[in-house]
Amino acid sequence: MAGGFEEFFEAATGGAPDAGQAANAVLPWLFRRLVDAPESTPRRLIYVLPANSLPEQVLARIRGWLDRLGRREEVGTYLLAGAVRDGGWLRHPERTAILVGTHDLLLSRALMRGFADSRRIAPVAYALLHNDAQWVFDGSDRYGPGLPTSIRLQEMRDELGTFAPTASLWMPAAQASIIGRPLPAGDIGDLAQAVVSAHVVGTETVVVLGSLARARALHGALREAAPERDTLLIHPYFRAADRRERLALLGEPDRDRIVVGTQALEVGIDLAPHTLLTELGLEDSGGTPGRMWEQSDLLALFDTAVDPPDLDVAGWICEPADRTALIAWRSWESGEPSEEEPDPGRDELCPVPLDELRRVLDGRAWLRDRLDGLWRRATAEDLEPGVQMLLDARYGGYLADQGWAPDSDVPVPTTPPGPELRMFACVEWVSLDQHLAETEEEARTLIDALPYLTEAQQDAVTLAARYHDLGKCHEVFQELLRAGGGDPPDVLLAKSKAPFSTGRSRRPGFRHELVSALMLAHGDHWHGDGVDHRLVTYLAAAHHGQVRISIRAEAESETEADEATAVPGVLGVLGVPGVLGVLDGDRTPPVTLSSGETFPAQLLDTADFRAETGGSWTAQARALRDREDLGPFRLAYLEALVRIADWRSSGRHDGPVEVG
């Protein structure tokens, strides 16, 4: 596009005289990234809104700007809010992308404890949020303890180092374009009468209250006081379809309506009502954590295998009232979900305040057990931010026009999970040698697009990609790949062909990447003096997010797709020492790669990974994390590149398969 920023801005906004606060933050970055200085501008823009806000409108506005500019295909746009957690951005760190989300989800990921996210995926999100990223914190005065945490994270990035520039911009909530009239807090009946008196017939009135409970109560009181008046309740605690419908109704021209909402309406939403009423007593939620965290806390959180008992991540991010779970309603003839009950779909899920959810836990809520993967009744101990649960629809708890309604006993109409997603899986037998070669190719492609790694770091990533799955040569994994039948070729395999990929390991908790690490750590024939062999070994071990700093007391069972449920980690079988299903005395076969390299047969010894033997693995991994040329952010990024290269090489052989 010819011309300067003014022309760019006008083209994006369609010449709107007041494009809003988001435009003033997003469009300058977009101009630099696409036009003026792409090489020095971070690839990712992370646009953050307060927890329990409604960021869909911001994302829609950004997509509209990109459409007007004709650049929609160049920039990925993703929503991370409530039940929507689009992870497509994780596979493409080299692309320009905009993430829009709430501060609870994004800051928890920046601490490697993403609310409701898998610990296995956590290092990838952590890496891409801390490297090559521009953060924009909109409505930052509404973040509670998240505001000082966001500042501290930027300080840590500046101190510990990142790949490519990573910066932060904080913006308090924009003042409404129409000055809101103060609405004295008081009895809900009196408030309703005040709102009815202030409303101008034939126009739209918006009322912003300080809590969900008061918004619900005022909405009900208005329907009683003025039943002829169209009243609309808007807050974040609706199922997706109902929330979209309400957002679409906002701002309809010449509509005679009273809209009641929470502070979520004040950030990221286009409002142009005739009358805006804001309850007095609404205060900024800026605050500080109970104990301000230090660099040592950040480093401790890098280890996803453990949760340090004195680190309250949720307390560093949002106030208790802002913490939510994700709920879907289901009905069962037996009164409880069966083992085959599917996980809830995106449109089923409703964000629900954790404090209010506590009241309905008496046998009505179910969640998947982390250890065996089966549905069980939820308890108060399960209530942590982002947890997903099913509620028995017979007992109520949701109304289409009110959203989450814990006092309602009206049975909830269930929302179908949606059309069956097309299942994709590996559709051919893939040899181990082919998979390793293709993963190295993908790693080199990534590195070519990301020029800020040193030569030594590039070598470490490509070698780790070449060797990451060596451990699949182990007989336990080879048996797993052949357990489903079919006619596999007589070579060492990395992937089995669907539908023959349903086998499970005969050793619960078996992890092939631990075998890869042992093969690399206990042999020096594969590297010369110039190779950072400890870094290569770590990156190979860490490529599934489970063998990183220390070893968890429980691990995920090995399946070909690495999506099995968690089971207790095997520390030994029949008295034989071992860890994660790998036993001392196990023997790997010789492996010859098309590169000409040969890994001879090897007896495995897991002592370095076992705490009871004083194993050295954790100390070596921490030394990498703390190394001046790496640090936690850059080390996680190198991990992510190997992980993404593995995903991409596996994806070369994926295709649609029959379900069931």
What labels describe this entry?
single chain, about 650 residues, alpha/beta, Rossmann fold, Hypothetical protein af1432, 6-stranded mixed beta sheet, 5-stranded parallel beta sheet, about 30% helix, globular
In short:
By secondary structure, the protein is an alpha/beta fold. The two termini are 50 Å apart.
What can you see in these coordinates?
With 660 residues, the chain is α/β, with parallel strands linked by helices. It folds into three domains: 5-171, P-loop containing nucleotide triphosphate hydrolases (Rossmann fold), CATH 3.40.50.300; 181-279, P-loop containing nucleotide triphosphate hydrolases (Rossmann fold, 3-Layer(aba) Sandwich); 424-657, Hypothetical protein af1432. 31% of the residues lie in helices and 18% in strands. It has 18 helices and 31 strands. The strands form ten sheets. It has a six-stranded mixed β-sheet with strand order 3-2-4-1-5-6, with helices on both faces. Strands 7-11-8-10-9 form a five-stranded parallel β-sheet, sandwiched between helices. A hairpin with a 5-residue loop joins strand 28 and strand 29 (598-599). Helix 1 crosses helix 2 (21-36), helix 7 packs across helix 8 (212-225) and helix 12 (432-449) packs antiparallel against helix 13. It is globular, with a radius of gyration of 27 Å. The relative contact order is 0.10.
